[in-house]
Amino acid sequence: MPGRRCCPPGALLGALGILALLQLLYLALLGGLPGPPPPPSPHRHRPPPQHHLKEALAGGGQLDASGQYRVYRDLLGPGEGGNEAALPAVLLATHASLGQLGHLRGLAARWGGPMSLAVFAPTPSAVRQAGLLLYALGTRCPHLQLHAHLVCPAGHLAALPDLPDPGEFARLRSCAEVHAKLAAAGRGETNYALPNASYPNNLLRNVARGAAAGGYALVLDIDMVPSRGLRPAFLALLGAPGGIPGPTGVFVLPAFEIQEGLRPPGTKQELLAMYQAGEARGFYAELCPRCQAPTDYPRWLGLPPAGTLSVTYTVAWRDPWEPFYLGPAAAPTFDERFRQYGFNRISQACELHVAGYEFWVLNEAFVVHKGFKLPSDFHPQKDAENRRNRELFRQFKQDLKAKYPGSPRRC
Predict the structure, then answer these.
(1) pLDDT tens series, the chain, 411 aa
(2) How far apart are CA 190 and CA 134, in angstroms?
(3) Are 359 and 385 in contact (CB under 8 A)?
(4) CA distance 92 to 108
(5) Label partner for 107 (CA 20 to 30 A): which of 182, 249, 265, 405?
(6) Cα–Cα distance list, 402 to 191, 320, 408 (Å)
(7) Residues near 76 by Cβ (< 8 Å), separated by ≥ 6?
(8) Angstrom distance (rounded) from CA 316 to CA 295
(9) Other CB atoms closer than 10 Å to residue 3's CB: what's the count?
(10) Hey, how many other C-beta atoms are within 10 angstroms of the C-beta on 25?
């Protein structure tokens, strides 16, 4: 039997070397090839804002507890102009009629985070216009991270019709142009002076605040702005050891008002300069100084400058204090029986007090109303509405005794 041939050791080593080089070349080529396609984006197949808006409006909305108002929630849905995050940690909730939407741009720019807007439309034509304007916000201003809601009288059904003049909205090419349209939408409208409808401010506040489930919300009227950088500073406070002083409380933002036409201050230093010049003053200083007195403006204004946001002192609630605050979504809602002018925010602050909440005043943060509040600014029915709501507030306080029988606190 012939003997078997063996490869010379050198040839064997050469073959192994070639094989190793081929493997390295293969790996190099493999590394240069594109990887497997990424999973499809969850936003890729979302319906466009117009489609979602039409579907949401076609659902007919829901009636509120009184049966007098129809509520359409989250009209823009997730995606463009919608709530990208499942639950925003800190959200600004606001409300407006069409005539006040011109304030949205400045408020959104100052806040710089997720917002929730509830719009009230008292007539069929206003309902239609509100739907079109919200659609324009959804398509041209996706950076707003906006939850948009519509409230109207129960007898009106909202729909997004075909535009009679397509060019009217087709010409809106940018978010700036949409905001200009918003500013012109209700020019000349007087606050609370609406045709054949009561402005349901507390219903609107609850609808807007509902988007903050699981987080914190700053409920603010649309013609007010917070101090600059409030949202990131507050998030840092929440994450800091000892940042939350106790188990149940709200973070109070001292409220001011500035002369009409002036640029709202962004920092406490800017606010102090305006205050000393007479260009800023405490909120409601002329109309109801007692309504903000517990904030203790002299104490707050005299605090030494601080580099970080923190709780500086605690205030006991007393009637008729109506503070603005950052509060948890689990806090008591606003009583929706209060409409138009008077006692709508005082009642909610009163319930916070009875429910056991503390009021923690923040050192560097504040809110500002654009324009001094003057008696001449109000609609003719203001005093009659205030009297009606004062009677309702007396009943409300009795209701709280039954709702919180074990609470030692009273309004």
Answers:
(1) 444 444 444 444 444 444 444 444 333 333 333 333 334 333 444 455 667 788 888 889 999 999 999 999 999 875 444 444 444 489 999 999 998 999 999 999 999 999 999 999 999 989 988 988 888 898 889 888 899 999 999 999 988 766 555 556 667 889 999 998 888 876 666 665 666 688 999 999 999 999 998 899 999 999 999 999 999 999 999 999 989 999 999 999 999 999 999 999 999 999 999 999 999 999 999 999 999 999 999 999 999 999 899 999 999 999 999 999 999 999 999 999 999 887 899 999 999 999 999 999 999 999 999 999 888 777 778 888 889 999 999 999 999 999 999 999 998
(2) 21
(3) no
(4) 9
(5) 249
(6) 35, 21, 12
(7) 49, 52, 53, 82, 134, 137, 138, 146, 147, 148
(8) 9
(9) 5
(10) 10
Distance CA 341, CA 221 (A): 13
- Give the Cα-Cα-Cα angle 119, 123, 125 (nearest 5 degrees): 95
Tally Cβ neighbours within 10 Å of residue 169.
Answer: 17
Residue 155's closest CA among 60, 14, 232, 260? 60
**Any residues with CB less than 8 A from the CB of 24 and at least 6 apart, and which?**
none
Q: Are 70 and 157 in contact (CB under 8 A)?
A: yes
**Residue 354 one-letter amino acid:** V
Q: From CA 359, how far away is CA 251, in angstroms rounded? A: 6
Residues near 308 by beta carbon (within 8 Å), at least 6 away in sequence: 233, 236, 237, 364
pTM: 0.84
Q: How far apart are CA 202 and CA 340, in angstroms?
A: 9
Cα–Cα distance measured from residue 72 to residue 8, given in angstroms and rounded to the nearest whole number: 85
Tell me how far apart the alpha carbons of residues 201 and 377 are, in angstroms, rounded to a whole number: 18
List the alpha helices (DSSP H) in 217-341.
Answer: 230-239, 268-276, 297-301
Could you tell me how many residues make up the chain? 411
User: CA-CA distance, 93 to 324, in Å (whole number)?
Assistant: 12
| AA letter at 300 | W
| Closest to 390 measured CA to CA, from 321, 336, 337, 342 | 342
Query: Around 291, how many Cα atoms within 13 Å sit in the side-chain half-sphere?
Result: 17
Give the C-alpha separation, 104 to 382, whole Å: 25
